[in-house]
Design goal:
The chain has 200 residues and is mainly α. It contains 10 helices and no strands.
Length: 200
């Protein structure tokens, strides 16, 4: 009996010491400033390209990455997200180039009907930056024909708005644009004056 009491007592002592050991605080790992894991930032997008040896088709080369990256087919949030890495010059040339290309191909009606019409605000700002005031004035007059003088950023809403726009007046603006010098000259001058916005 005594022996069994001693076994029980010994067992209690062992259990008590085990439970005390478990309760004692254990030093936790506290990383020092030097040991903290470093989060690498996502690389910053840069739409600039190496400067070409030739000036042939300089405008296309200067905005090649911007042209490929900017998405105006989805919604305004996608447009703004993909435009964010572009420099002011890249934005201006891209928007002005799409404006001139669409209007030259099918008039202001085509520009606003297609997805590119979402770029109208960027085109206005871009034409001003490029010093193409006559082109900008024409685009402003086209915009003024829309309900509330504000084309929708949503393509299908903009197409519905176009049904309320006087197509004859838009056609006259097309003719006025065709009579102006190409925007290419404005773009080239800007690119040559601000190469750091296009080339790295």
């Amino acid at each position: 009996m005594q022996r069994s009491r001693m076994v029980v007592l010994a067992l209690c002592i062992v259990l008590a010491s085990c439970s005390r050991a478990r309760r004692e605080p254990v030093a936790e790992y506290a990383p020092t400033k030097d040991a903290s894991p470093v989060k690498e930032a996502a690389p910053k997008l840069d739409y600039r390209v190496p400067r070409p040896a030739s000036t042939d088709d300089l405008v296309s080369v200067a905005i090649e990455k911007t042209w490929d990256a900017v998405d105006f087919y989805e919604d305004e949030a996608t447009l703004q997200r993909t435009l964010a890495p572009a420099t002011p010059g890249q934005r201006a040339v891209l928007a002005a180039r799409w404006y001139e290309a669409e209007v030259s191909n099918g008039g202001h009606d085509q520009y606003f009907f297609n997805s590119t019409g979402m770029l109208w605000e960027e085109a206005l700002a871009g034409l001003a930056l490029l010093g193409a005031e006559q082109h900008r004035a024409l685009l402003e007059r086209a915009i003024a024909l829309f309900p509330d003088q504000r084309p929708s950023k949503d393509r299908f809403e903009r197409q519905t708005q176009l049904e309320q726009v006087d197509s004859e007046l838009l056609g006259k603006l097309d003719d006025e644009l065709y009579a102006l010098d190409s925007l290419e000259l404005h773009m080239l001058r800007y690119i040559e004056a601000h190469p750091d916005q296009f080339f790295r």
